[in-house]
Structures are given as structure tokens and as C-alpha cells.
Design brief:
2 helices, three-stranded antiparallel sheet, alpha+beta, single chain, 67 residues
Length: 67
């Protein structure tokens, strides 16, 4: 996998997750997945600032809260 794990307290990060199928509407048809995201947020020290869910991708901005 090609990703980074930047653990910078107070750091703000913007990321995009895109589905492989650009014609898919999976994310808006199954918006209930967001509940799982909120469970993860309870377990790890980050705060979601903004999320934009589109049919085939998600944009999000989060801030790390640990020291």
C-alpha cells in the first residue's frame, strides 16, 4: 500500500477516497456506512471537520487530537 501515517498532533489532513468504478453510485446508495466511520472516530484521537460524500468518492478533512 502507498499511504502515509502522519501522526502530527494538531495536524489537519485532507484526503479523498475514490471507488475503482467511476460509474458506481455505491456511496450514496449505502450512506449508512457513515455510522461505521463514526465508530472509528470514537476509538482514535481525531476530529472530522468536514466530509463530502459523492456517488463514487469521498472528500474529508480531519484533525489529529493526540499529543
Amino acid at each position: 500500500a502507498r499511504y502515509r501515517r502522519n501522526f502530527i498532533a494538531g495536524g489537519t489532513f485532507f484526503f479523498t477516497v475514490k471507488l475503482a468504478d467511476s460509474k458506481s453510485r455505491l456511496l450514496v446508495e449505502h450512506i449508512g456506512f457513515a455510522r461505521g466511520y463514526m465508530d472509528v472516530q470514537k476509538q482514535y484521537p481525531f476530529e472530522t471537520i468536514a466530509v463530502c460524500v459523492l456517488p463514487n468518492h469521498i472528500h474529508a478533512t480531519s484533525e489529529l487530537k493526540f499529543s
